[in-house]
Amino acid sequence: MDIQRDLLALAIYFIILIGLLVRFRHKKLRYFSMWTGIFLVLYFCAIEIQKKTFFILIPLLFFSLFCFFYFKEKCRLRNGWLLNLFLISFMGYVGLVTATSSSLIGAGILAVLLILFLVTILFGLYAAIIFLIGNSFIVLRHESRKLPNLLTLILGLAIIALIILQSFGPKILPNWSVILLSIPTTIAVYFFIVFWNFLSISLLYQFNHPKYNQDFIIVLGAGLINGEKVTPLLAKRIDRAIQFYRKQSEETLSPPQLLMSGGQGADEKVPESQAMREYALEQGIPAEDILMEAQSTNTLENMRFSKEIMEREKPSGYHAIFTSNNYHIFRAGMYAEDVGLKIDGIGSKTARYYLPNAFLREFIAVALMNKRLHLFICGLITLGFVALAVINYFFVG
User: Fold this and answer.
1) Domains plus CATH for the chain?
2) What does the pLDDT read at residue 276?
């Protein structure tokens, strides 16, 4: 190993990192991530130049594709695939450099990844079961016993059932039929990969930082208490919009208008947008800075009807963002792009105990948007293992 080279590189890295963290105290994570990424690229490029190789172009290609498509349309699942392809190719590249160039930094990265991998293999599945079932009891203690609040419990029990099936199935079933036990396992692995893709890009989308030059902030509606008052969940969405409203007012002296979006449900006494408007007025927002959209019944209509109002108010063009709960903004952004709105979302905080359940619910909703593709792939998996079982029965068994 070229220890002197790597120790010098690490010293430079930490000196600049400490300087950035001291200089930018309020955005530590952003500057830590940016500088770490820049440092690794420069470090590995220096090794490539020294060895006269160009392998780093492979992960950089995936990263470039990810950046191109992400900043073109942020709320697309393909961005998650490109991001994960970049991470996989980069880890493979680090492994290659470590093996061929005796990189101390590369070895450190691989060691950390290896430890995480081993911990995941040894304890991950059982830790997931304990976490999911434990979390479900916390959710049920704070929330109603409706199906959407039982998702972590259902998933935990499903994993237990799958483990039991794989453990005892081969002992009681004929040899040829054991192959069929691979169907639920393979489908579960497929949906885990799809979920990981959704979760990675959804979490990345949380780091939106829109500019303080907005004309409108769309606030997405939700249910009302007793059909007339905003719920704590909906209040957080409005509070997040008000926070941005006040920050932009301080920065530019030109506040945006809050566009409350939500119609009147069958069990509601007033439109959601009206209750939201009253809440914002109580928080000190001037009436002239509040608009209402009271026709929508779902998120897609929130975006479509809000777009019509904004185009009517500012036909020459406008800048806008939307607010919702942090777990919901990615899917809401997908609907915004579907109706031709090029806007970003900012999320309000959600109780930590509810986040696993909330992200599972969002994943199911997003998966149903592509249900034909998922049904086709699950069908291929099933047909493939059934064919193997038939072959085993007639020609092997």
Assistant:
1) 3-117 (no CATH), 121-205+371-396 (no CATH), 208-350 (3.40.50.620)
2) 93
